[in-house]
Amino acid sequence: MQRATGDADLRSPGAVLLVSTYELGHQPHGITLPKAFLERAGFEPSTMDLAVDEFDAAKVERARFVAVSVPMHTALRLGEGVARRIRRLNPDAAICFHGHYALLHGAALREELADFVLGGELEEQLVKILEGQSDGGDAAALSRLEIPVPSRDGLPRADRYAHLVHGEKHVAAGYTEATRGCSHLCGHCPIPAVYDGKLFVVPEHVVLDDIRQQVRAGVGHIT
Fold this sequence. Notes:
The chain is an alpha/beta fold. The chain has helices at 29-40, 57-62, 73-89, 100-104, 106-112, 123-130, 191-195, 204-216, and strands spanning 16-20, 46-49, 65-69, 94-98, 116-118, 163-166, 169-174, 179-181, 199-201, 221-222. It has 2 domains: 8-130, Rossmann fold (3-Layer(aba) Sandwich), CATH 3.40.50.280; 158-222, no CATH class. The strands form 3 sheets. A 5-stranded parallel sheet has the order 2-1-3-4-5, sandwiched between helices. A 3-stranded mixed sheet has the order 6-7-10. Strands 8-9 form a two-stranded antiparallel sheet. Helix 1 packs across helix 6. The longest helix is centred in the middle third of the chain and has 17 residues, at 73-89.
């Protein structure tokens, strides 16, 4: 049974909590991009990146809606454990899993843990759920979005993430995305199962502005 969403309290600071568990050592795009969409819509989400931070019980207890990013298998397995802990601590909070592996495992997630499961071009769908305009559905969202620059405020410092080692020099390594989805249909990859051959190009100014803000934060290499 889905927990209620869509009232004004969800716009209060920390009522929405964005959680990441694993994103290959990078500052998580699965937090920074949804955060930008939500802030544009008037929400004030808090964040918790468990790849580098401790579990913050106070943030969980304050939240009324928790979105767990699961872009890959490792993140999914870790995210399931985190969601169980969140459910024990705050049983009234709605939990949403989003990312490639959320949709691929949607039925199992809904049985035990998830009120909502989202994939594909999901960020506007997430906003609509919080505004009470959508129940999320079962299919990937595959409409082109107006993508904002990822919002990185409030996340751990860049130097707490992956580094490029060049000789004796360690350089903080950042990450951004220039495309979403994929035009190929490789059977070994989870992306075709979600995007079905669709590819979306992120506007050049968004990519460059994201790189610039990371450089200002101390990043010296971009993936």
